[in-house]
Amino acid sequence: MAEKRLKVSASPHIFARQNLKFVMYAVILALMPALFGSIYFYGLRALYLVILSVAAAVVAEAVCQWAYKRPITITDGSAIITGILLAYNLPPGVPYWMPVVGSVFAIVVAKQFFGGLGYNFINPALAGRAFLMASWPVAMTHDWLPPAGGTISGLDGITRATPLNLIKAADVDPSVIERLTSLEGIRALFFGNVGGCLGETSALLLLIGGIALLILKIIDYRITLSYLLTVVVLSLILPIKGHPPYNILFQLFSGGLFLGAFFMATDMVTTPVTKRGRWIFGIGCGIFTMLIRTFGGYPEGVSYSILFMNVWTPFIDRYTMGRRFGTR
Amino acid sequence: MPITFIGGVHPKEAKLTSGSPIEVLPPPKTVYIPLSQHTGKPARLLVSKGDEVKLGQKIGEAQGFISANIHATVSGKVKSIGRFPHPVLGDGIAVEIENDGEDTWAFEITEHDYEKLTPQEIIDLVKEAGIVGLGGAAFPSHVKLSPPKEKPIEILILNGCECEPYLTCDHRVMLEFPEEVVKGGEIIARVVGAKRRIIAIEDNKPDAIALLKKKAADFEVIPVKTKYPEGAEKQLIYALTRREVPSGGLPMDVGCLVHNVGTAKAIYQAVRYRKPLIERVITVTGENIKEPKNLLVRIGTPAIEAINHCGGYIKPPEKLIFGGPMMGIAQYTDQVPVIKGTSGILVPAEGEIPEPGPCIRCGRCVDVCPMGLHPCIIVDYVENLKFDDAKRLGILDCIECGCCGYVCPVRRQLVHNLKFGKAEVWRKKD
């Protein structure tokens, strides 16, 4: 019997439409509005930085996998995302070699050394950024560019500072702070024509991509929502340098918060798998972001707060598994 | 509030055959009747090579309490007894019977009064007829009808959910044999003394809901949300009663008993006509079947006979599944026979088996698991042969519904490893 054998495999025999590539390329597409924004604000230089960063990430991934004799999986899109996110976290005025160095570190050290996709314990792009921050702090904190159309304070970008820098600076003219936190200032933050990292300035453009990912259920609303809500709550409590805590919107739209809350704190590999764990993760990110912004040595705390919470992920997972069915 | 459980998925329903009336498949020239078609011990062989057997004659005797009788499903001659393809076990001992085409019954099939029978007499009739759960698990029905005294049954639930995509056999049975389903349900309710009687049907079958509301006066007909696995026993009980069957326990621990609607019909026939389980309704379906149909087929009929009755394949098949796409078992040959627990034959257009990738910890399996498990973490342990940890995280609670595997974006072999891990944990226990 059975001259022609059929294929056998374990159940299930049908699958949801969203496979790995779908997820990865959806994230890449969702990051595109912010790319167009950065080209508009900072010129073609922004595009070149992103291209260099992505190319370095993909090449580093391929070389690493070849060296480790692992399957080459550069088409899965994950290295492309790392490249884009790393570039988005750089000041637009950095030299062209910088994204290359950062991407190579992100892919080789933070990702492939630990086993590749799925095994890294911290977000590779943020690890790459942290490496660049530690190695070339001056470039990473001073190479800001004024966005096209000028800035609202007249200072950010031009004076090698971002709105968060200016708020934090001890010697800044109070009228600048006034202007930054005025309606006009908030509008500039929301649309993105302020000084800042390449892909982080426009809250609006990041929101477009982020909401698309939320609708497709590619990112989990729990982390994004709890992160943003925590920042809102804490911005009511924590003062901005003695000023009344009037400006929730300033804290929400400035710095890398939207880029972090929608695209980096939601990285699947380095965040909890449990629902309760994701709430905790988001709240933790919010707390540390605000603590760093208010009391820390750096003006901005998004990337370090996410990295810090990444490290806690296995611990959070372990203690948030919850009740199984039938164990009441 | 829709009546449902927590978790689950909603795959494409693809009920190609919900409008196709049940057709009778002419009995094949040869049937292959396995001695193990049920949960529990295989039946003990009662015939030898060369014997003449009649339709409905017992050819396998239940061994022990959790086992079931096996009957000849055609009249004719025992051609051989040997190992043949088996849809669950790969291969197994089966009786090959050459059909004489006469369908001579071993006894007369007539109507019997059953109103005066005692519960034990009914249980004996069900056992004699070799009835097992027709929903897929094939658990011997007489065992479910005999709960211990300290576990009284308050609620009987007839399960007409049919949440597996593609399958429509239960749907058609409810539409075409509503009286038999209801009467079978009444018999079960009387035997176990259930005061509350429910027929649960997914709300994608409004015609069956309307019909049974008319026909089943003593039952609450409750539409439940169309979601997979709504028809899983524990999930259905929770949806209807908010009671949770305890981990490692049975429905009777929360005063419930669940029977498939097709099983109710078979129980009615066993009690009313003393008719053994010789045939069942299956759905022959999939994008590679010319004319998908619902068929009444004799147990032991090779799959290919049923497929040919449906116009055959459209193109050479790559994959053939017994059951639905979520929990069904892929077969290596189309010669494999239909057994009591076979609810359908599914031949998909493509046979591609996706290459599994590394877990990206997206947590989707956690979100959908109806048992509240963490499949990705449990499978990490199984893959590293850490079965004690897998057990600690509740691997034995897994109902193998396949939701985790369905949503996994990297197509990890989650269900395969959960089944493997469960088997290893059980092996260590023994």
Task: Supply the key terms.
A: 328 residues; mainly alpha; B: 430 residues; alpha/beta; Rossmann fold; 2 domains; six-stranded mixed beta sheet; four-stranded antiparallel beta sheet; 17 strands; 27% helix; globular
CATH superfamily placement of the largest domain in chain B: NADH-ubiquinone oxidoreductase 51kDa subunit
Q: Spans of chain B with pLDDT under 50 lasting ≥5 residues?
A: none
Mean pLDDT of chain B: 95
Quick one: biggest sheet of chain B?
A: 6 strands, mixed
What spatial order of strands do you see in the largest sheet of chain B? 1-14-13-17-15-16
Query: Could you say how many structural domains of chain A there are in total?
Result: 2
The second-level CATH architecture of the largest domain in chain B is 3-Layer(aba) Sandwich
GO cellular component, one term (chain A): plasma membrane
Protein name (chain A): Ion-translocating oxidoreductase complex subunit D
Function (chain A): Part of a membrane-bound complex that couples electron transfer with translocation of ions across the membrane.
Subunit structure (chain A): The complex is composed of six subunits: RnfA, RnfB, RnfC, RnfD, RnfE and RnfG.
